[in-house]
Each structure stands twice: as structure tokens, then as C-alpha cells.
Protein 1
Amino acid sequence: MTRRSPTALPTTTASNPIPVDHEAITDTVARILAPRAGLPDPEMVEEWLELLRGHIALLVPVVEDRCAPGWQEVVAEVRAELDKGPGNHRAAACVHAQVLARCTRQLLGMALEQPGAGQ
């Protein structure tokens, strides 16, 4: 599997209306939230957290630029979750990665939302 860099900014096109690789972000989130037996290796969780931090760093400015009412609160909640950190135990780090994956999915949805559509 080819791993895409979360910092690579693709060109904005009609099929990709935001300057982020939404397919890479979606793939990352799906991988993290996929059902699995047991806990993943600590190295895997650290890789996930690194990818999620990168995705979030790219998505937050896009969401802030589009800033519909209430979106600032979501961004603040995501930042607060990032500040919590992964904790000291493997299970806590895995749960933290899953929470950040859900936050990333929410930010991606907000970033892809057409400005003015239904707000």
C-alpha cells in the first residue's frame, strides 16, 4: 500500500474543491476506524496519530476560511482533543486515534461542504 503524505497539497479542481487530498484522508480514517481484533501495535498507532495531525493541520485552515456559524466551536473541540494527547497506555492511545479520526472525518465533511449550502 502506498502511503500518501498528509502535507502534499493537490491542485484544486472541480472534482477536488479543496486543496487537500481528500482520498488520502478518507483512506486514513477508514483504516483507523476499521474493526479489528485486539489493539494495534504502538508503532502503528503512532503512525496513525502522525497522519491525523497532518490531516487536521491541513483541514483546519480550510474549514476556518469557510467558517459557517458554529464551525468555530467544532475547530476548538478538535484542537482541545489534539491537546489531550494519547495518554500513557496503549488502549488510551488507540482510543485517542479513533477520536481524532472521527474529528478528521468531521472536518473533511465541513471542508467539502459548499459555502452557503444549507447554512
Protein 2
Amino acid sequence: MIGSRYLIAGAFLAANIAAGDARAQSVNNPNLANCGNSTRLDIFGYGDCVRNDINREIQIHTFDAVARAVANSFGIGPTGVEPAGLSTLTPAEFGQRLDGGSTVIVSPTADAAPAAVTARWNLWGDAKYTWNDYDIPFFDVDGGLWNGIAGIDYKITDRLTLGILGSYERADLGEGIESSGWGVGPYLGFVLTDNIVFSASMLGTWLDGSQSPFIDYDSERLQAAASLNGYWYFSMLRLTPGLSLSWSKEWLDTEGGLPDQTIETAMLTPSLQLGNTFRLGATATIEPWAGAAFDYVFINDTEIDGFGGIEDSYSDLRLQAGFNFGLGSHAQLAIIGELGGLLQDDLDTYAVEANLAIQF
């Protein structure tokens, strides 16, 4: 059985090598997801181009989740502390106090409730599911990517937090393209100004997977990201521009004597979010928001030992929307939806995500 499996894999390899010289050269197609294009196929067929897509989706999830964790750690967002005595007022009561027709009484400090102890620890988890809908002639590689990240950080000062995160991912796509594995790495957040926050992370991941029904591999992936996010509030309206730079490299050790691969991805992602916070009660808030992110993938290379490489730089646009909930003064819940592939001809992505954070 094992010998037959390797024989089939060898025939698959030979057939693809004979298909053209372009497999041993670098090509530059505008759309990574165009796996059915004869110039896009290499000795592994469609498998490694889908692998590039998965790595990009993991990068996006990681830097988004870390930026959100850092914002929660610093108390930025709809749960931000309001001036004493105003946190329980309704919008109508705010108007009554500000219209000049009533007297505002300021309680003496001695009668005010003691200030809450500043939370230093931030514990959080983030789960995301992405459905990849491909339009590739002759191949049915549609499928899902599950990815979970959890972390904890400690706020060393009011401007610096350091943390560690762990991850689990599982990709289950068609045509035998599968992978799963665990990861771990550090992250940090730093408040640069009153409105701008820097976050950065590194993540090492160990995976088992397959590129087709006949090609299995073990791999190690290293990824790093840095983000700048702005938080400007105009009353209860939030404006958040962002810029992220991310990179990943995966080393695949292919079984059965087939050549090993190296997959590298780097991208620059400007983004923008707009949200508005509404108070649900004395300590609960909800913020509906919408946003967009533009991914410029300027490095997207696959190197195959002995057969050269493939280079595919491309761009994509993602639309996002969601709800941020403030659950008291030290807990947050986010529910997010995302539509991607708007600038790609052969791939659409649909994602849902949930994030829960608690400070103590």
C-alpha cells in the first residue's frame, strides 16, 4: 500500500514536471488564487498556492487579535472610564445637565466612591473561522480554516504591556489539502501618544499537513507583525486608522523523497474602522462598527528544492463589521464578520470571529 502510494505520487510529480519550463522559473501573476492557470501550476499542482492563502489568513488573524488585546489591556475602547458621576447618565440626562437650565452639583471628593484598583493582567481568547471559496477549473479545493489564539499580558506601566500567546489552527480544504498544528510566541503593546498605540508579535508554529492526497509534509512556520493603530473619539464616535506590516516563512519537509518547499509571505495592510458606542446600562455598552482593510502582499514566494520558485505579488480588499460589547469595567466581547477576496478573481473568503477579554 505504501509503495503504491509513493508510485502514484512519483507519477504525479513526473507529469507536472513535464508540463512546461515555467515551473522551474519565477512567474508574476496578478492573482495568487489563480491556481488553475497553467503558468501557476508547479510540481505540486495547486497545493502550494492554497498554502500561501492559508498563511496570509493566519497573519491577518494574528495581528488583528494582538492589536485588539493590547487595546483592551490599556482600557481603550467603549469601556473607557468616564468622569466620575457621569457613567450612569442616559443621553437625555446628559442633555438636561448641559442645556444650562439646571444646576450641576459636584460631590465633594470625600463623599465619592474610592477609585477602583487598576487591572494589570489581561486574559483573552480569539476564535476565527474562514471559508475559502475558490473558482478553479477542474479542482474543488473549497474549504475552511479554523484558528484560535489565546494570550495573557501584564501591564508593566500605564504605557507598556508584555504578553505571551498560544495558537491552534486547522485547515480542511478539498483535494486533500489539510494541515493542523500548535504555535507559541511573545507580544507587546506600547502607548506612543494619547491616541496612537503600537503592538508587535512573533509566533512559531509546528504543523502536519498534506498538499494533495499523495503528498504529506511536516513544517515549521515563523511569523512576525507590527501594527500602529489610532483611537480618536468624538463624543461616542470612534475613528481608528491602522497600519500593519507582517511577515511569515514556512519550511515544509515533504515526505516520500519529494522536494522540500519554502513559502514566504510579507504584506502591508492599511485599515480604517468607524464605530459608535451606545450605553446599555450602568456598566454595559455596545459599539456597532464597520471598516475596511487593504492587503498589499509584496512578497509571496514559493521555492521548491531543485525546481526554482514562483513569485506572486498581489493585492486584496477586505470589508469588516461587528459589535464590541463592554461587559462591566473589566471585560469585553467582540463579534466580527469579514468578507475578503474583493480584488481577486478566483477566491472569495467569508469569516466570522469572536473575542473575549478579561482584566484583573
